[in-house]
Design a protein that fits this description.
six-stranded antiparallel β-sheet; 668 residues; binds ligand ME8
Length: 668
């Protein structure tokens, strides 16, 4: 038997100084789609990710928290792994740059370089400006300069370092770009890289004396490796470089290297398309096949980034969708949105509202509705059996054409067009059903069987093609269609229409994408994001009207008892409503100004369905006054109004007082 073809794919390893946001998760999600697609084409895929755990920004972040860097990175790498698990990321290798294996690999690489190309490394004095937030040399002169990514002033660095003679690689790199134009993609990025190299290359410092938190230079431990030399080597250390019997490479490394694809974001292209090939050339190691630099996810028109603080986190989105629908849909919703909305390679705007809209329109009303229509009719009219079509139908070149187009788009990493093609088939199948009306009494059993077979075959076809993007729901529909096994094992490149067997008994139809209420979803996402931003919330307060009450954080009956000291942490005061108003585009929230004795607070309360704003003025309420501020719909809420939650619908009923009581009085 033929050995399966191998495909080795990497994401950048993530800085372990903070938790991932939607922008950073984007690279990993995209790679997971590629990995799943390649596996469905028969490849044995190795997919590497990991955490970048050295460098000055980690050292400083740990210092701020008063913990050792090792503890900080250990804590943070777990957050990455948990997130990848939540997002269903099927990576095969996870590198931590603080591992001994990785350190050995970095040292092996430099030793090999010193042996093969000794003139590539030399010692000299370095003076320049360096951004500690983006780990980037901003300028090679001591003059003050701001970082081109985050805009902050860069720090002055002056020390004796080991240098890599990058200047000697200008011609070799230009020849590489000329001979292998696919090496850097998209092509407009290749042009940027070429212009950069053509303008002349300066040697780069690849060690540091001022930093302790790094991998020691072999035989000169006063120096640690510059974090990018260290980090780039992870693509090799993670698959066994430096661990083999010959001191260089393990059998796994030999079978996987060079990588087929390094997927990265555009801001780190220089490191990957200029430095990395030069480092490898000097070590006389093969170069990766391809580097693809995707665009940024923007949030409010700016790059979503931890140094700017304009961040959306993936966990609240996924969990809010799952909780509100009672189904595992959040992961598919996020993946679908990112892959569909952003033209891969370009920048794209991220908006939670747009994500919810897409979910309802394309997933709930689109695929979910089509699958449910078809399955319900098969159950109703054919006792749950996919009957043979009444007449032999030519499935038509249309589907073959779609199949080819989708494969081509996936192959070119044009995800938005792949998804667009698949959804066009959803629309045309819906249209076909509406036109042929299998529910019409005038249909004979044979006519109906033809329509339902064709529609079920379309749903099956869609499941296979959409699986890399929305793996959870497609697997569910697959099973509901009575198909066996894992979609992951189906060969997407060999998909055939006729593979749907007449006589198949379908499973129980159930909604795979229940609709979601936009406002409720927004509130819940924002509440969970606030929890991430202000993790120190001492205890949660049951049944209130602020976001905590709707976040599903209220302890269920029977949870652990709290002490009186715990309760005393919650500051409750009498408030009197001074004014209240609706918030545009929010059906449930009211903006309430409430007098709590020594100040008038703005509190956002989810009571608009039960109270008219004008009826609230003068009302006495109970306010949680020491709740960390949180933002909802762009407005700050400084506290929470307590309310009971009535009936199955959870209608809010505000807590109030029958007696006269002054605003600001303590409630205990
Ligand atoms: O760069 N939109 O790590 P990192 C799209 N440790 N992608 C984004 C993004 C955004 N708003 N923000 C971040 C590093 N990314 C280095 C890599 S590799 C040898 C070392 C992407 O945690 C970014 O482009 O800053 C990169 O692909 C990934 O998140 C990790 O970024």
């Amino acid at each position: 038997m033929d050995q399966p073809k191998k495909f080795y794919l990497t994401t950048p390893i993530y800085y372990a100084n903070s938790r991932p946001h939607v922008g950073s998760a984007y690279t990993t999600i995209v790679c997971d789609v590629i990995a799943r697609y390649k596996r469905m084409c028969g490849y044995e895929v190795a997919y590497l990710t990991g955490t970048d755990e050295h460098g000055v920004n980690i050292e400083r972040a740990a210092e701020k928290l008063g913990i050792p860097p090792a503890e900080l990175v250990d804590r943070n790498q777990k957050i990455f792994r948990e997130l990848w698990k939540l997002l269903g990321i099927q990576y095969t290798h996870f590198v931590r740059t603080t591992s001994t294996e990785h350190a050995r690999a970095v040292q092996t690489l430099i030793r090999r370089t010193l042996k093969r190309t000794p003139q590539a490394i030399y010692k000299a004095k370095y003076e320049g400006r360096y951004c500690i937030y983006d780990n980037l040399y901003v300028s090679d002169s001591p003059e003050p300069a701001d970082c081109q990514i985050c805009g902050r002033p860069a720090e002055l660095i002056s020390e004796e370092n080991y240098f890599f003679r990058l200047s000697a690689y200008q011609d070799k790199l230009l020849a590489l770009y000329r001979d292998r134009p696919e090496f850097v993609q998209p092509d407009f990025r290749l042009n940027e890289v070429k212009s950069f190299v053509e303008a002349g290359l300066k040697d780069v410092s690849i060690s540091r004396k001022s930093i302790k938190w790094g991998i020691p230079w072999p035989d000169d431990p006063e120096h640690v490796f510059y974090v990018w030399y260290d980090a780039l080597t992870s693509y090799m250390s993670g698959i066994g470089y430096g661990q083999g019997p010959d001191g260089d490479a393990s059998p796994e490394f030999k079978s996987l290297w060079p990588a087929d694809l390094h997927m990265i974001g555009k801001e780190i292209i220089r490191f990957h398309a200029v430095y990395w090939p030069a480092f490898l050339m000097a070590a006389e190691l093969p170069l990766p096949e391809k580097i693809f630099a995707h665009g940024w996810l923007l949030f409010e028109q700016e790059k979503m980034s931890k140094s700017k603080g304009n961040i959306a986190y993936p966990e609240p989105i996924v969990k809010a969708f799952d909780e509100l629908t009672g189904a595992k849909v959040g992961n598919d919703a996020l993946r679908y949105y990112l892959l569909r909305e952003v033209i891969f390679g370009q920048d794209g705007n991220f908006s939670r509202e747009a994500l919810i809209t897409r979910y309802n329109a394309d997933l709930a009303n689109g695929l979910g509705n089509l699958a449910s229509r078809v399955l319900t009719m098969i159950e109703k009219y054919q006792d749950g059996i996919i009957a043979a079509p009444g007449k032999v139908i030519d499935f038509g070149p249309g589907f073959t054409e779609t199949h080819q187009k989708v494969l081509k788009s996936y192959g070119r990493l044009e995800f938005s067009s792949a998804v667009g093609e698949i959804w066009a088939t959803i629309a045309s199948t819906d249209f076909y059903l509406t036109n042929t009306k299998p529910w019409d009494d005038s249909q004979t059993a044979s006519e109906r069987a033809t329509i339902l077979y064709r529609s079920a075959a379309a749903v099956r076809f869609i499941c296979v093609l959409a699986y890399p993007v929305i793996p959870d729901a497609t697997q569910k529909v697959w099973e509901q269609l009575g198909q066996h096994g894992k979609l992951a094992d189906v060969r997407i490149d060999q998909l055939k229409w006729g593979d749907l067997q007449p006589g198949t008994k379908i499973g129980k139809p159930s909604a795979v994408f229940p609709r979601i209420d936009k406002e409720e979803a927004m509130e819940r996402i924002e509440a969970m994001e606030n929890e991430i931003r202000n993790p120190a919330t001492p205890i949660t307060v049951p049944a209130g009207t602020g976001s905590a009450a709707t976040a599903g954080t209220a302890p269920a009956a029977g949870t652990a008892k709290i002490t009186i000291e715990d309760f005393a942490k919650v500051e409750l005061r009498v408030g009197v409503v001074k004014s209240a108003e609706r918030i545009p585009n929010a059906d449930k929230l009211l903006k309430v100004m409430v007098d709590i004795g020594d100040e008038v607070r703005q509190v956002l309360a989810g009571i608009a369905t039960a109270y008219a704003p004008e009826d609230l003025v003068g009302r006495k309420v109970v306010v949680v006054t020491n709740l960390a501020p949180r933002k909802m719909r762009g407005l700050e809420s400084n506290g929470m109004l307590l309310a009971a939650s009535a009936g199955a619908e959870g209608k809010p009923v505000l807590c109030t007082f029958a007696e006269e009581i002054a605003p600001g009085s303590k409630v205990k």
